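sorry to bug you again but im stuck and you know this stuff better than me. below you get a single protein, a line of residues and a line of whole numbers that encode the local backbone shape. mainly i need to know what kind of three dimensional shape the backbone takes. anything you notice is useful, everything is just below:

***
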Amino acid sequence: MKTVSEGNGRPVGTTRLSIKGQVVIPEAICKSLDLKRGDQFFVLADKDTICLRVLRPPTSREWAQLQELANLLMKGLSQPAAAA
């Protein structure tokens, strides 16, 4: 595995597919993205390109906003529709 920096300072690297079908993400990339063991990824493939997107749980603020939105939606569902 080899890691270098792109012109914009972001780490890039190469890796290999293991016999078990596993790919190791280079250490510099893991550090730059603060990846930890057990992190989950959304994987998208198209022709010869594989894209990994880190799945992170919502922050407490995002969670509160989601709960507020859900409460508003539930209120709207429980009220009878206005006559037209």
